[in-house]
Every structure is written in C-alpha cells, then in structure tokens.
Amino acid sequence: MTTNNLKEVMKQIDTMTLDEQLQLIAYLAEKTRQTQLTPKPRQKWREIRGLVQQPALGEDAQTWISRSRREDDKHRESQLRHET
C-alpha cells in the first residue's frame, strides 16, 4: 500500500463511528492472526537426549567444564592485571 493510500484509509477511519472502528480492529486482528507465521515446533530435550555418543569429542563432560573454568579464570586474571 502506498503512503497516499494509507493516509486516505486513515482519514476514512477518522470518520467512522466507534463501533465501526472496533469492528475494523477485530477484522484486522483476525486477519493478522491468520496470516501470522506458525513458529517451528521446538524440540524437547528428552527427544534428543542420547543422540551424541559419549564421551563427546573424546572428553568427559566434567573434565571439559573444569578445564573451561580454569581457562576462563586465567583469562580474567590476565585481563585484570592489564587494567591496573
């Protein structure tokens, strides 16, 4: 819809009664609801549980977490040293 057409429709809406405006709102809401994209259904964790062979990437999960935390701690400490 062009800007001019939209302005014309808005002018017409201004001349409508309150009941007509409410009917228009209901119509637009229903039309929008019907044309709204349907979201893709989300997978549940229990549906994908166990799909990856353990240990993933050859490393135990707890070992990976501990190593990642140590690396993050070292990184934060080096950043703090450079700030002061």
User: Could you state the order of secondary-structure elements as H and E?
Assistant: HHHH
How much is the average pLDDT? Answer: 85
Backbone shape: elongated
Helix content: 55-70%
Distance between the termini: 59 Å
Spans where pLDDT lies below 50 across 5 or more residues = none
- Strand percent estimate: under 5%
How many domains is the backbone divided into?
2
Write down the Rg.
29 Å
Helix/strand-derived category reads: mainly alpha
Number of helices: 4
The major pleated sheet works out as:
none
Query: How many β-strand stretches?
Result: 0
Helix and strand arrangement:
Blueprint: H1 3-14, H2 18-35, H3 45-48, H4 61-83
Question: What does this entry show, briefly?
Answer:
The chain has 84 residues and is mainly alpha-helical. The protein has four helices and no strands. The chain is 68% helix and 0% strand.
Description:
The structure is a single chain. The chain has 84 residues and is mainly alpha-helical. It has two domains: 3-35; 55-83. It is 68% helix and 0% strand. It contains four helices and no strands. The protein has helices at residues 3-14, 18-35, 45-48, 61-83. The longest helix is centred in the C-terminal third of the chain and has 23 residues, at 61-83. The radius of gyration is 29 Å and the shape is elongated. The model has no long low-confidence stretch (mean pLDDT 85).
